[in-house]
Amino acid sequence: MSGPSSSTNPPTDPPSIETPAPNPEKGHQLYACGHCGRRYSRPEHLQRHVQTHTLGRRFACGICGKTFARADLKKRHETNHENDDSKKRRRTTTALNSGRVTHACKACAAARVKCQEEKPCQRCTRRGLTCVSSDAGSAAAMNLVHLSASARSNDDEYESGPSTGPAPTSFPLDQTSLYGQTVQLQSQPQSRSGTPNTGDLTRSEASSSQQPDADQLPFCDFLRDVLYEQQYDQPARMPDNTGLDVLDFCNDTNMELSDMDFGLLDHWNAGGTGPNNLNAIPAQADTPRSDNSADVAHAHIRQNLVTAWDVSPWRWDPVAKDNAFGEQGNLPVSKKDVASLQAEASQGGLRRVVDQRLDFAARDGVLALVLGACQPDAMSSRISGSFPSADLLDTMLHVFLNSHTNQVSDYIHFPTFKLNEQEPEWIAGAAAAGAVLTPIPTLRKFGYALQEAIRIVMPKRFEENNESILNIGLIHAIVIGQDTGLWSGNRRKMEIAECHVNIPTTMMRYRGKFQRSTYPMLSVTAADEGANLEQKWRTWVDMEKWKRFVFHLFLRDSQQSMTALTNPVMSYAELTLPLPASKELWYAKTARDWKHAYLRREDGHVKRAPSVGDLFRDLNLLAENRHRLDVQLSAAIYLQAYWLLILEYRNLCSSYRIRSYTQDPYGNTNSLLNARRHQLLQDLQTFKVTTMNWPEITAQERLLLNQLMMALHISIDDLQLFAGKEGDEQAHRAFHVLQQWVESVDSRAAIWHAGQVLRFAKLFPLAQLKNFYAVGVHHAALAIWTYGVIKKAGTKQDVSSQHEKIYTDGPESMGIQRYINTGQGLPVFRGPASRNGVSEATIENPKAGMEAIHEILQANFGGANRMAPAIVENLCVLIRQLDFYLQNMASQDTSTALVATTTVVSTVLFLVVARALLYPVQPKTIRNPLKLGVYDKANADKVKNLVYQPDQFPGARDVETPYGSTRVYEFGPEDGEKILFVHGISTPCITLAPIALALSKRGYRVMLFDLFGRGFSDGVADIPHDARLYVSQMLLVLASSPLAWTGTNAFRLVGYSLGGGIAIHFANAFPNLVRDLVLLAPAGLIRAASFGRVSRFLFVSGLVPERILAVATRHRLQKPIAASARPSPVAPVEPVTTPPLNVVEAEVNPASGKAVTPLEKRVMEYVRWAVTHHQGFVPAFMSSIRFAPLMEQHDAWAKLAQRAPGTTAILLARTDEIINPDDYRRDALSLVGGEQHVRWRILPGSHDFVMTNPQDILREIQDMWETKA
Predict the structure, then answer these.
(1) DSSP state of 1188
(2) What CA–CA distance (Å, rounded) separates 394 from 268?
(3) What is the distance between the alpha carbons of residues 687 and 680, in angstroms, rounded to a whole number?
């Protein structure tokens, strides 16, 4: 909202009836209302008060119809209704003789007479006046929905209302939070002449005998019938965003800094947050949706797709309150210390592009500029007392400079750049650009306010001294501010910036900066040294800075033309200057480095580098001069210039009203245009083939190339017309044209290139898919959506099973060419990679397609929980709503038969969905984290501190088995005695690391592996995790070794916990293989009381749905686990309420009262990490609880007595929480033949003694083997 108004300006709105008398203490209160003069001591109180003037009583009670100016008052009022009986509740419709109406019409408001809720009102009808609802407050909230009491009337009342005027309308107050701001769709009156009222729609839809012609239907009716055959589909309301403000944000939102914003800015000034912490600060929570249950009128829902273009970001309708000073309230920040040493220390996390730090003199220069733009003067004192510190401005500057180094057209020469020598306008503009790049809403608002202030004062600088047009720093400042505005997503800022883009262009055009003669070749020799060399380098740098800056403006101009489909300001024909020099020359830090690179790259060249026009004549010049040029920037210049050729072709097609895929009404004209189109496609294809294997060409250029080729196969303007940009008539016309397009080769070629746009969008660096490139993804989405919508109308059967899949986002293949030429195949594309794999969407399913594209955009910024730039967020909104509005058009008035049918179908669907959700069908193999890319380089920082790494042990290998992959480690002397280890239920083999590493150092050959579903082994979902599965896995592991692990007494076997129970079954099955068997706290005879009666029942009974049990298990495993105390051997208490995780607790937690070792702590952290990142871990754990040899294995233990005496060792822990030594002695010792047959030892420690007491275990093992030897 605007800043405080001057007291000399009369109020534009009539005073509120609730305006109080001025406060006698107003002299002590700083903030005054410009309408009524009331004063407040805090800005948020003034803000809330002004809304009562500008926004009106827009919050209506859904029970009695009473309206309020604030949402909290309405909520409190509705809460009071909960205690009312039915007699005390008022009607939801407004009586004729009721009191004040919600909104009076303009005529009645001007005459100050009573109006009515029904429009047209009786007074206007009687006097023959035009009854138009008052739009007071729309200037302050351009897209705000004004709810009226009549909006809650039922369909019958609405249908029977007067038909001589527009019916009262309302929309649900759906809200969306973009950076903590609220964006809402502006209410539009139903005034289109071709739109019938609800009653007409109902009657026409109810008649099944009459099939109206598509040309006679309103666009929304016609499009609904195109899309949906099943008339009973009733999709749910979209939960978030309303309106199609494609690139707009914050234009209609409150830009005032709140208390929270002041607190955050104060925190930053005091050093609480530096660049290294920007990602750690959580974004502000989304604004809660208003819980408005009023149904939207049927016809209005279906017209949203058409009328939403009226609030397009390129259609700004300025009002009186829009001005350059409206954001000054965002400039003041906290009054606390702005030069804290903590802030300086915390800025180490952001890469410093330049060594200099912004000094206080430069900061004061920025402040002086801002104060010069302030109006009124009262704001100056607030700003000067709380302007950001030099450290905070320095942080913003380096955010911008880091972003600048990542863009294709970088024009700042950092080796000669001096931060504190820049013009104050440049510093302010760069700081504003950096502020809006941060993920913090408060800093973004400050950045836009600073950008607005610099835009105001900049013309004065040039008017004071016209020679300033030769100052490249000042022109840089203009362009930086314009770049910020052009991609701000704010309609006002975008239009103002676009209006001024020709200013720097004109300055440089008339200074000759576009001409080749301005950039002569320099004569550089090996003998150049000292001041002479330094002078040549500086001369070259000055020319190259201007050259790159010119091309930056050209790229921006062309991108803006592609975005808005408008004519550019610059022409490729006037750019005769050479293309930019190589990055090696541009980044050379010293004159000597530059000379060596120059001599190497320019050796033998007597001509200057080619221009963009030269590339049009001969593309081979790009390859011939590849070593001299900045190839990436030159390719981008060539492609953006090519857009101007495509735009010329499209303008001719539009003038003659012909398309390459329609019939030719003009004969030779179409032939000429088709020949031109063929030449354009051939040139772009030549560029694609020429640069196919060039590493300099990145995903950005590949995306642009395919976007251009898509534009040659389909007119983006036709797609927008079909989406309702210019209303019903033009949408009908576009539909008939696009019907021919869908059946042509052009449509399939366009879909292929749209898929390629998505392919390269997924390859963008993190947080770089924004601005123009995000718009390119939107164009691709619009093409895919249109093709799917119209194709669906002509397809009467499911073709998904009739054709092979054609991946439009994959590499080119014979299948792609066959699909484009003949239409054979089912076109699909893939979403971004995630933990759940990669989703696929068919082109002919618009809903799935839009969801996948929405995920692609958000995935580039770290997912839905991270704050993307405003333009990306609004494009995401648009893409989601493309399908949302079409679904709402499918809703029909229900009948009795329809209700019955829907009930049956819904019940069946509910049962099917419930079964699918509660008892999910798992794949046979669940991929481990390595296969899912969790340990890729991009995630290195997230996993580097985990205790278990892929290279944890030497000799790592992945063994592919019929059940899935198994991670195996084998190390130690090849001729050493062999030992195989088997770990426990919840941890990978890392728990056995102390023992295994120690034995390998003593000369043993050691093998460890991860059981299925643990560590780096795949999960097995279709087979019970019982002894048979694990014994088979052990055999496959042994067979994978290049050494012989078979034969008589081939190896020794060590099993821990669950691994001990598995080792017993293996030794019983293959007694000759196992030389010695060592069981460390082995499972097999664990008593059921250790699990708990209830827990055991839940796991074994099968009555609890699998998904619910998995969620509960996952939740419990992720919580910090405190080890249970050992139950008393005399009277064991059954832990009925304890979840069945005591085994896990014992494996990773110390006993009660024991200190946690570093290995234990890290293993505990890893287990919680594995729950989230190894999707096979929880299913494997649950299956092991059910089927693994944990309990009642007396028969298997009894077979150990058949082994040779002295070849079996059972080592237990004295304070084991799970394996009670006394119980095991009583139950197991007699089974295995007694102490004279086996080595039975009780060692210090608890169940995790393999980590806490490895030396005791090693001593017993070594003593056993040495005794035998």
Answers:
(1) S
(2) 12
(3) 11
User: For the whole prediction, is pTM greater than 0.90?
Assistant: no
Where does residue 384 rank: exposed (0-12), middle (13-18), buried (19+ CB within 10 A)?
middle
Pairing of β 1019-1020 and β 925-926: antiparallel
Instruction: Give 797-846 pLDDT, tens digit per residue.
Output: 444 445 789 999 999 988 899 999 998 899 999 999 877 778 899 998 88
What is the longest distance spanned by two Cα atoms in the chain?
118
Q: How many CB atoms lie within 10 A of CB 945?
A: 11
Fold designation for 937-941+954-1268: Rossmann fold (3.40.50)
Contact 395, 275 (CB under 8 A): yes
Q: What would the two tokens of residue 273 be? A: 């947050």
Pairwise CA distance, residues 329 & 145, whole Å = 25
Sheet holding 826-834, edge to edge: 805-807, 826-834, 837-842
Q: H or E element: which one contains 670?
A: helix 668-690
Q: How far is CA 729 from CA 123, 721, 783, in A?
A: 35, 9, 20
Give backbone dihedrals phi and psi of 969, rounded to 5 degrees, phi first. Answer: -125, 135
Torsional sign, CA 1036, 1037, 1043, 1044 = negative
Q: What is the Cα–Cα distance from 825 to 803, expressed in whole angstroms?
A: 5
* Segments of the chain assigned to CATH 3.40.50.1820: 937-941+954-1268
SS3 133: strand
- Determine the Cα–Cα distance for residues 415 and 585; give it in Å rounded to an integer: 11
Task: Burial-class residue 1002 by CB neighbours within 10 Å (0-12, 13-18, 19+).
Answer: middle
CA–CA distance, 136 with 892 (Å, rounded to integer): 35
pLDDT digits (tens, 9 = 90+) for 959-1013: 999 999 999 999 999 999 999 999 999 899 999 999 999 999 999 999 999 999 9
Side chain identity at 833, as an amino acid letter?
Answer: A
Residue 1188's contacts (CB-CB under 8 Å, 6 or more residues apart) are: 985, 1025, 1026, 1027, 1030, 1058, 1061, 1062, 1083
CA atoms within 13 A on the CB side of 427: 28
Q: Which two tokens stand for residue 412?
A: 């700042």
Whether 89 and 64 have beta carbons less than 8 Å apart is answered as yes
- Mode of pairing for the β-strands spanning 978-982 and 1051-1056: parallel
- Average pLDDT of the residues in 1219-1236: 89
Tens digits of residue pLDDT in 23-72: 444 445 667 786 777 787 777 777 777 777 766 666 778 777 777 777 77
Contact between 928 and 1012 (Cβ < 8 Å): no
Q: Is the peptide bond before 376 cis (omega within 30 degrees of 0)?
A: yes
* Whether 524 contacts 536, CB under 8 Å: yes
Q: Is the dihedral of CA 297, 299, 300, 302 positive or negative?
A: positive
Please state, in angstroms and rounded to a whole number, the distance separating the CA atoms of residues 522 and 692. 33
Coil/strand/helix, residue 980: strand
Host H or E run for residue 572: none
Nearest to 878 by CA among 497, 309, 290: 309
Compute, in degrees rounded to 10, the torsion defined by CA atoms 1055, 1056, 1059, 1061. 90
Distance CA 847, CA 855 (A): 13
**Residue whose tokens read 């920025």:** 366
Instruction: Judge whether 271 and 345 are in contact, CB under 8 Å.
Output: yes
The amino acid occupying position 623 is A
How far apart CA 225 and CA 864 sit, in angstroms, is 33
Q: Which of 1120, 1145, 1172 is nearest to 943 (CA)?
A: 1172
Residue with tokens 């088709």: 674
pLDDT 10s digits, 516-556: 999 999 999 999 999 999 999 999 999 999 999 999 999 99
Please tell me the distance from the alpha carbon of residue 527 to that of residue 524, in angstroms, as a whole number: 8
The set of residues, in sequence order, having a beta carbon less than 8 Å from that of 1014 and lying 6+ positions away, is 983, 986, 987, 988, 1170, 1174, 1177, 1180
